[in-house]
């Protein structure tokens, strides 16, 4: 049967229109993709610039801190600063300033000041004479007040500089500070060579009143460009309508002073014209190649295309091992916008099964468990998925969720899976497994919520658990990340410090102090004190605890090495098994004339990794003279046999018993028994949480030897004389 010519022509026209429309869509799509790719490239370039810039700032800061330290170590300099002896300072410092300038041509100024902010000596390049800033600059005021190093960007009379300060001490007394000013060009001069970017510096117009006799280039209503390449200047001098879309500019890298106040931004520019040209050439080539391929595919694969599409789609949404629907298939359902009930299950200790029997056996277990889930799903009008190694999902859409109604369903599921008798040809035995489950009801977040419920079920050894706000761990995870950041910053900036609480004898005379760890955190320029309950558990889990302990040992023992009072420091039992901690401790002990001034308070724990090794190290410490105390004795984990092995010098009675001793009979009995037990073994007792005179008098009658609590004094920063 012949097809009429008109029909053929109409068919050809329709085919051509479809083909042209397809090409147009492909062209638009490719153009969009390339533009999006260009945007992503620029973002990555900007991020790389920011990372390199911050790394260079941090590197330069540390280098100049070291150089300033080396200058301050020169004999006679600290004395000259203390005596305000300009000639002596000049005689010592001038040669070092020349070396600094030779080391870095961008060094602008080196200044020594008294504690009142008065300039004692200033060395600067001939072209840099504008450092006539207010003597009450925050950087200098904070250096004088806190007597510690600070660094950050500052705006002066002629330009922006990066400042690094160091406190100066003479005979352990603060006598002034030294400051070096660096041209920020040193941070940006290599960036454009490395990343092929154009880099400049913009500052807030509100700071212009400080910078005199300078001409600036307006960026917008708020910022001006004070440093920058010709390309950047050309970009900002053009009319906004005339600015080329091919030159991309971003300004989001902050230039901050030591109080984290933003003074300006790093301006990053990038000429994309070459990339755009190459992308267009590639796009045209790809477009025409694809057009030809589409023509050929349309002719050759017209009949087979749908079959191929179905095949590859099925492969993309199917788990290779079990042939179940996979994570991609589940995501498609979850993002459909329909309400659903989701049950997430995993196999208890599946990794052990793999280790014992091998991966092949483990795979066979996964296949048979998957079949059981599919059978259960079919029975209850649900869909079954395997989304990772040993995790399975049951999904039911369009249902209102009432957790109680699903208890029977979950009981049936667990009975079904846990009673499976899994037969493996390679094994003579039959394997049995158990599962944990979490259930949630939501739209796109049901899987995430079910994972949190499953995690809590596993943690609490429950067969299954429904999601609720009580099991939501997102906020806690954010809290942990924030605390880790604070700890790392505190360690880096020497903000892990000891507070000391007095311990008295029966007459109320202070005979020793206990060192208590604190973190000083500066948030928006304000100082906050963070207590150990808020950061130590996180530090222990994240591997930061050892560094905190070493910082505490160095600060505490160095401060008390020449004092009359004894110093009591806290150890966890496993600290004795950490070589790094013990090396630091032994080095510090050697600086004491009498190691008996040092008391190690061992906090009780339920278990010690190697008790025999622990006892051996304690005996070694006692042999060299260090005194041993058991902290929080009576808190519930006390092992009297361990006490007899350790033979401590002190037992510190747990504060929870002392706080309630006036009203609680059981506390009185326990405290009395501890005192008699200690007295029989010739061990002194220390009572914590002594908060008033009535408790103090009662404990003296009972026979307590030493006392600690708010009645005698709160923990105090004796080093810096700050109290809390």
Write up what this structure looks like:
With 724 residues, the protein is of the alpha+beta class. It has four domains: 5-52 and 283-314, no CATH class; 64-282, 2-Layer Sandwich (Beta-Lactamase); 316-472, Reverse transcriptase/Diguanylate cyclase domain (Alpha-Beta Plaits); 499-516 and 539-723, EAL domain (TIM Barrel), CATH 3.20.20.450. Helix content is 46%, strand content 24%. It has 23 helices and 28 strands. It has an eight-stranded mixed beta barrel, surrounded by four helices. Strands 2-1-5-4-3 form a five-stranded antiparallel beta sheet, with helices on both faces. It has a five-stranded antiparallel beta sheet with strand order 7-8-6-10-9. Strand 23, helix 20 and strand 24 (650-653) form a beta-alpha-beta unit. Helix 15 (474-492) packs across helix 16 (532-542). It is flat and about 105 Å long. The model has no long low-confidence stretch (mean pLDDT 82).
Please give a quick description of this structure.
The chain is of the alpha+beta class and 724 residues long. The chain is 46% helix and 24% strand. The protein has four domains: 5-52 and 283-314, no CATH class; 64-282, PAS domain (Beta-Lactamase), CATH 3.30.450; 316-472, 2-Layer Sandwich (Alpha-Beta Plaits), CATH 3.30.70; 499-516 and 539-723, TIM Barrel (Alpha-Beta Barrel).
């Amino acid at each position: 049967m012949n097809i009429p010519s008109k029909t053929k022509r109409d068919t050809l026209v329709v085919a051509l229109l479809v083909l042209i429309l397809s090409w147009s869509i492909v062209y638009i799509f490719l153009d969009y993709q390339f533009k999006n790719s260009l945007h992503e490239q620029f973002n990555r370039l900007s991020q790389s610039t920011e990372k390199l810039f911050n790394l260079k700032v941090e590197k330069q800061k540390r280098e100049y801190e070291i150089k300033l330290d080396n200058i301050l170590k020169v004999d006679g300099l600290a004395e000259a600063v203390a005596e305000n002896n300009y000639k002596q300072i000049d005689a010592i410092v001038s040669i070092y300033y020349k070396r600094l300038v030779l080391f870095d041509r961008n060094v602008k100024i080196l200044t020594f000041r008294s504690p009142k902010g008065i300039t004692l000596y200033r060395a600067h390049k001939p072209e840099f004479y504008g450092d006539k800033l207010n003597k009450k600059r925050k950087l200098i005021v904070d250096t004088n007040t806190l007597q510690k190093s600070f660094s950050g960007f500052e705006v002066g009379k002629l330009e922006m500089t990066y400042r690094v300060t160091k406190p100066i001490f003479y005979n352990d007394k603060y006598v002034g500070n030294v400051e070096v000013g660096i041209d920020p060009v040193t941070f940006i001069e290599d960036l454009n060579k490395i990343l092929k970017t154009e880099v400049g510096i913009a500052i807030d117009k509100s700071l212009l009143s400080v910078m005199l006799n300078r001409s600036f280039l307006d960026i917008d209503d708020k910022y001006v460009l004070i440093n920058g390449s010709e390309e950047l200047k050309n970009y900002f001098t053009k009319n906004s309508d005339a600015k080329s879309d091919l030159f991309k500019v971003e300004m989001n890298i902050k230039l901050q002073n030591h109080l984290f106040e933003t003074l300006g931004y790093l301006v990053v520019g990038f000429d994309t014209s070459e990339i755009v040209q190459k992308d267009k050439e590639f796009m045209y080539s790809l477009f025409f190649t694809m057009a030809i391929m589409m023509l050929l595919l349309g002719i050759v694969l017209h009949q087979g295309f749908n079959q191929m599409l179905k095949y590859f789609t099925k492969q993309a949404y199917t788990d290779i091992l079990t042939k179940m629907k996979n994570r991609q298939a589940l995501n498609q359902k979850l993002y459909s916008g329909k309400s659903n009930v989701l049950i997430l299950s995993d196999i208890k200790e599946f990794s052990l099964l793999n280790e014992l029997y091998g991966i092949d056996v483990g795979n066979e277990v996964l296949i048979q468990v998957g079949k059981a889930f599919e059978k259960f799903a079919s029975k209850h009008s649900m869909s079954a998925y395997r989304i990772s190694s040993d995790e399975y999902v049951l999904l039911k859409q369009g249902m209102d969720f009432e957790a109680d109604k699903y208890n029977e369903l979950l009981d049936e599921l667990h009975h079904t899976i846990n009673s499976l008798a899994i037969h493996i040809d390679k094994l003579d035995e039959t394997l049995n497994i158990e599962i944990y489950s979490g259930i949630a009801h939501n739209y796109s977040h049901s899987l995430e919520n079910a994972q949190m419920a499953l995690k809590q079920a596993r943690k609490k050894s429950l067969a299954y658990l429904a999601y609720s706000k009580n099991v939501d761990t997102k906020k806690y995870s954010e809290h942990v990340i924030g605390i880790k950041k604070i700890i790392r910053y505190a360690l880096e900036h020497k903000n892990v410090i000891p507070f000391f609480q007095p311990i008295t004898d029966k007459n109320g005379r202070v005979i020793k102090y206990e060192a208590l760890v604190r973190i000083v955190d500066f948030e928006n320029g304000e100082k906050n004190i963070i207590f150990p309950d808020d950061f130590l558990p996180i530090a222990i889990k994240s591997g930061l605890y050892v560094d905190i302990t070493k910082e505490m040992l160095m600060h505490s023992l160095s401060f008390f090495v020449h004092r009359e009072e004894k110093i009591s420091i806290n150890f966890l039992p496993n600290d004795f098994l950490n070589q790094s901690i013990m090396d630091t401790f032994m080095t510090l002990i050697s600086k004491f004339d009498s190691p008996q001034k040092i008391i190690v308070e061992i906090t009780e724990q339920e278990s010690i990794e190697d008790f025999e090794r622990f006892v051996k190290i304690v005996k070694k410490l006692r042999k060299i003279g260090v005194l041993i105390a058991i902290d929080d004795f009576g808190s519930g984990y006390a092992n009297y046999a361990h006490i007899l092995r350790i033979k401590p010098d002190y037992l510190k009675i747990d504060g929870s018993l002392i706080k309630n001793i006036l009203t609680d009979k059981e506390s009185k009995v326990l405290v009395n028994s501890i005192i008699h037990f200690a007295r029989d073994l010739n061990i002194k007792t220390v009572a914590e949480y002594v908060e008033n005179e009535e408790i103090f008098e009662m404990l003296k009658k009972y026979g307590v030897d030493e006392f600690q609590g708010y009645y005698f004094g709160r923990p105090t920063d004796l080093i810096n004389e700050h109290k809390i």
